[in-house]
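Membrane protein: structure, please.
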Amino acid sequence: MAPLIMLIAATLLGRTAGLFGVEALDERPAALRLGLAAMVLLTGLAHFVEPRRASMIAMVPPSLPRPALLATATGVLELLAVPGLLWSPTARWAAAGPAVLLVVMFPGRRLRARREVVFAGRPATPLLPRTLMQLGFLSACLVVVFG
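Here you go.
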């Protein structure tokens, strides 16, 4: 839920700043890029901070090797996307990265919801709300990718 709140809040903050004269955020796509960057930063950092790191590792499907390494790699990839999202010339390519990660990592999120893995001390989000959030995140990425 925190990533969704971050996406919405940062996008609205960016849009408001644009309406108050911040030229770089004067258009909706720029505000959405800011919101997406804030969300990706939040989720990327979660791969490295306990207790969220342990939860990220736990959601790696058992068929995949080295879950800790995979959690670290996906966190690094998310963090690498953040500056690209904030710079207009690279934003489309940078948004494609999180879009791919959302699709690739969805089985792990499904597994976590099905196993009812505790995530950072709280029960995992049930599958239907999690799927709807993922679709919202993916939609935000695709809006940036395709304009």
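Notes: The helical segments are 2-19, 28-46, 52-58, 67-86, 91-115, 127-146.
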